[in-house]
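Researcher: Here's a chain I'd like modeled. Treat it as a single chain, no partners, no ligands.
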Amino acid sequence: MKFYRRLYVGPSIRNVNKIKWKLLTGRGQLGIYLISLSRTSDQLDIFHCALLKQKYFDKKALQVVGIAEGREEAIFLVQQMLQDT
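Model: Modeled as a single isolated chain. Structure tokens:
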């Protein structure tokens, strides 16, 4: 899993480094959503961090560009990304 250098973080996220560490070590977290680059097209994926527990998910190829608490906040971050570009 790779994190974008200029990671977009939701306003309700307090300790980003702690969340990153928990994601890398496989710890469970409630309410944390990730925004990543899609592997199939030029879009972004929004998903709950619990999906990382599935064997199907390839964590090594995952490129995270945003972390949010809740789906609504994740959608807000995607809108902010679009405005920045």
